[in-house]
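User: Can you predict the 3D structure for this chain?
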Amino acid sequence: MRAKWFCRMEKIMIALITNDDGIEADGITALRKMAKPFFEELWVVAPATQMSEIGHRVTTNLPIRFEERGERTFAVDGTPADCTRVALAHLMPARPDWVLSGINHGGNLGRHDFVISGTVAAVREAAFAGIPGVAFSHFMKRGLELNWDVAAERCERAFREILEDTFETGDLWTVNLPHPAPGDREPELVACEQEKHPLQVVYEQVGTNELVYAGDYHERPRRPGSDVAVCFGGDIALSKVQV
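Assistant: Here is the predicted structure, written as structure tokens:
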């Protein structure tokens, strides 16, 4: 029988923060700002360069180089899953209470994204180790700039809701922020299931033996009430997943 934890609102001890956009990305800076009031100690262990859409790839047959970038801050020449592994197995002196990943520059919606995303892989690796985690992502509309301060505030709302939930070994959460235009209503927080429809996989042939992916993420199929429908409809999609 799996152990069950009850997440309470008092300050928690240690968090590991990572992402797949790289340690210098705006999203991880916003996530670090968001997490600071919740934890006594923050560790940042993130890829040295962008490692998006790399899934759960890990490095086992090559050296993994890491570089200290400040107090409890490390850049790793590896994948997001590598970052979680290296942090847990080597860099951190104590096991973190939570692993937070993101804020991803782009949505991670539905089961298809769940497998492809490096952002999600980092917290899935934590879930395998019995550590709760949250993958935060920000859906992006063409032509609209992101406000990372606002994104951090919305992630904080979602994390407070998650802390009121219960946790079983192997659980993780995905949070997908919508991208409303200035003046639109403030998004609501909606608990929802992941979209089961796959992404539309379409290619355009540009040469004799060359293809370019031509799928439209914004036009992906969705069912009412799924995380895709919620996020595309302007609200914050919160999904709990067991691995």
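Confidence is low (pLDDT under 50) at residues 1-9. Residues 4-242 form a domain with the Stationary-phase Survival Protein Sure Homolog; Chain: A, fold (CATH 3.40.1210.10).
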